[in-house]
Amino acid sequence: MLVSPTRSLRVRLIVGVVLIEIVMLSLLVWSNLGVIRQAHGDRLRDSARSILEQITRTTGSYLVEVDYAALDEYLRNIARNDELTYLVVLGRDQRPVVSLGTLPEQRWPQTESDPLAVTDGTLDVTGDIRIGGQLMGQVKLGFSLKRMEQSIEAAKLRSIVIAGTEIILTVIVTVFFGVRLTRRIGQLASAAQRVGAGDYSVKVKTGTPDEVGVTAQAFNRMVAEISRRTHRLQKTLARERVIEETAIDGMITYNAQCCILSANPAMALLFGYSENSLIGHQATLLLEDTSQTEWTTVTGFRRDAFGLRKDGNRFPLEWYVGKVDIDGEPLFAATLHDITERKEAEHECRILLEGNRFLIHKSLAVQEEERRSLARELHDELGQCTTAIQADAEIIHELSQQRDKKIETSARAILDVSARIYDVVHSMMQRLRPSVLDDLGLVAALQEEIDAWRNRHPDVDCQLITAGNLSELGEAINITVYRIVQESLTNVARHANASEVVIQLGYDTKSELPHLLLSICDNGKGTELDMRGRGLGLIGMRERIEALSGHFTIRSAPGEGMTIEASIPVAETVT
Fold first, then answer.
1. pTM, whole model, 2 decimals?
2. Angle subtended by helix axes 475-491 and 442-456, to nearest 10
3. d(Cα 155, Cα 33) in Å, to the nearest integer?
4. In the chain, where are the structural domains located?
5. Helix, strand or coil for residue 21?
6. Residue 7 DSSP label
7. Nearest 5°: phi and psi at 138?
8. Residue 450: CB partners within 8 Å, gap ≥ 6?
9. What does the angle CA 225 – CA 231 – CA 233 come to, to the nearest 5 degrees?
């Protein structure tokens, strides 16, 4: 883009310097002319005074002697002065005695002292001729201003010629140096215009390292940095555009009034609208039952909603809103992700999970029933057989005491083995189904289990704390609590390395529906909950509690032991 001459720095610089020079030279010429005029006026006035004084001093003697011929000859020598127009000597009677030159028409003009104030072209001066203080006559002189004016005009002309020459030289020098000085600035301006047009390959020659050279260096560095950042921005925008155009999620941008400004191609697949048809419409038309407030609220997490396609169909989606301020105006961006397949998968997973839990609960119920049957059969069949063997062995032992030592020894061995078998069977029955649970209730069964466990682990202090009437809880709760305590004690013995275990069992009556609360706490080494193995014991505990519509939690940390808590509603399960 060419710069207008009226805006060109070069033109304005040259014109400004020339105008300043013209004004300064004009002031100088005007000042010199005033000095010249004053000098010529002073010279003429001094010359007139000098001639007038000379004549008034010398003509008195001639007037006394009445020697007018000698006076005339004397005055003619004086009248040869080029500037003297007339010379008149008057006697006492004011009559001319000697008259030389061209006399003025008006006799006699008024005496003048300032040549520059004369208007008729002649400086008129008058002097008295005195001898001994007596007035002998007067001398009147007239001096022409023509010579003075010619000298002033000549000086004026010389000043104008000199001033004009200086102005011409100034213009030439100013143009020469102005062009040289502003050429580099013009190069900078031209380069800046090319950069503004998007050409970042331009580079300005620095030349002499003066202010313009330093500016050129800074300009080159600035252009290089702009080029680098522009290329980086272009690459970033290109990558973002590729991501936006190839993304499977719908993306839109909109303003504070929810007016859509842009949309990516995925929006057409999600909602059935083309990219251009969405621009200018309200973003609220894309989701069911959403307001502008929701669209302009940045929550920092994804939200579930239902999208509305162009054909009116609705589908589940997740959407996320982001915000950035550009020039003080908010710009919002929303990402919309179709989660139809995920919702269907979640639905199928829930069905499968419910089926798995049903199977687990049924298997636990079948397991307990099988354990009960097995314990009963062990008690009824193997227990009776063992008792019969012991009775027969006892009879054999008594009969053989005095007859056969070998038979006595064998009988004693049979008694010992049968006793061992009885203990093993009794222990197996306790593990399968403690009879005390059916006979004496939950608390007694727990106490018996804890006592037996303490006998096996005497170095661990295990306490049972109960509160409230726990005799009417029902079969399902009794066996569930018993199994959880039994499994927990097994885990403590295997993994906790604890010195103290506290088991608490009681009611929570604060809620509307009473709950049975079970807490098992040890001071062992603890564990990282998110790093613990997938042990079947903990899974079984959770499934047993959830089968009773309860809530199961575990708290633990390295070095802080482990706490297992279970909450079971009792109103729905009491029998």
1. 0.42
2. 10
3. 7
4. 9-166, 248-338, 356-433, 441-575
5. helix
6. T
7. -135, 155
8. 462, 464, 485, 489, 503
9. 100
Angle at which helices 9-65 and 146-196 cross, to 10°: 170
Which amino acid type is present at position 439? D
Q: Would you identify the CATH topology of the domain 248-338?
A: Beta-Lactamase (3.30.450)
Q: Which two tokens stand for residue 114?
A: 């300032």
The answer on pLDDT for 55 being more than 80 is yes
> What 3-state class would DSSP assign to 518?
strand
Tokens representing 214?
């330093």
- Structure token pair of residue 83: 């500037």
* CATH number of this structure's domain 9-166: 3.30.450
Which among 549, 374, 376, 535 has a CA at the least distance from the CA of 477? 549
* Structure-token match 């104008």, residue found: 160
- Report the alpha-carbon distance of residue 460 to residue 522 in Å, rounded: 10
Token output for 436: 């005390």
Rounded to the nearest angstrom, the gap between the alpha carbon of residue 281 and the centroid of all alpha carbons in its chain is: 30
Contact 563, 519 (CB under 8 A): yes
State the fold for domain 441-575: Heat Shock Protein 90 (3.30.565)
- Token reading at 438: 């059916």
pLDDT at 532: 47
Choice among 195-204, 257-266, 551-560 with the minimum mean pLDDT: 195-204
Rounded Cα distance between 182 and 212, Å, is 9
Q: Where is 509: in which H helix or E strand?
A: none
Contact 219, 196 (CB under 8 A): no
pLDDT tens for each residue of 198-257 = 787 888 777 777 777 788 888 888 888 888 888 887 777 666 666 666 667 888 888 989
Tokens of 94: 């004011």
Residue with tokens 């300043």: 20
CA dist 179 and 174 (Å) reads: 8
- What strands lie across the sheet with 84-90, from one edge to the other? 96-101, 84-90, 134-144, 122-131
**pLDDT recorded at residue 520:** 92
Span 155-188, pLDDT tens digits: 888 888 888 888 888 888 877 777 777 777 777 7
Nearest to 22 by CA among 155, 157, 160: 160
DSSP line for 308-356: E-TTS-EEEEEEEEEEEEETTEEEEEEEEEE-HHHHHHHHHHHHHHHHH
Q: How far apart are CA 25 and CA 168, in angstroms?
A: 12
CA distance between the termini of the chain: 97
Q: Which two tokens stand for residue 257?
A: 């009034």
pLDDT at 502: 93
Give dist(CA 255, CA 358) in Å, integer: 51
Rounded to 5 degrees, φ, ψ at 445 are -65, -40
Instruction: Give the residue-averaged pLDDT of 307-333.
Output: 87
- Three-state SS at 422: helix
Alpha-carbon span 287 to 56, nearest angstrom:
125
Cβ pair 552, 545 in contact under 8 A: yes
Domain 248-338 and domain 441-575, same fold? Reply is no
| pLDDT of 25 higher than 60 | yes
Dist. CA 27–CA 41, nearest whole Å? 21
